[in-house]
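User: I've been going back and forth on whether these two constructs are worth ordering. Before I decide, could you fold them both?

Assistant: Sure. I'll take them in the order you sent them. The first construct and its structure tokens:
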Amino acid sequence: MGHYPLNKGVNKPVEFKGLVGSRYILLLLGGLGGVFLGFIALHVAGLSSYLTLPLAMGAGLRG
């Protein structure tokens, strides 16, 4: 008969790289999605990649 360990994290909040709770994880995902959509909008508008890429990277690293 095999040994199955108990899941001790059943009632603990979700944690991702130090961020605890689903609210902060959703904010992180929303922010990254916004930066990505902003990059796409600038690229489709015809701005140079040499301009859009640093703007998107700066917006992503700002937070």
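The second construct, handled the same way:
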Amino acid sequence: MKKYNQGIDLPVGFGLALEEFQAMNYFISLPEKEQQHMVDHAETIQSKEEMLAYVQSIVKSGS
């Protein structure tokens, strides 16, 4: 896990997916409570495909 600005640990796959979709800045701009909710959900994801789909849905909802 990687620690980011507010001290939230990101699952590696989630962090990589955020980078792949160039969504890290968007994620970091969110309130910490919302970030933690996303991280909690990401920790339940079991496959790369699911993780990419989840991050893609985050990017679309934030547009």
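Notes on the second construct follow. Residues 10-62 form one domain. The helical segments are 12-20, 24-29, 32-42, 48-62.
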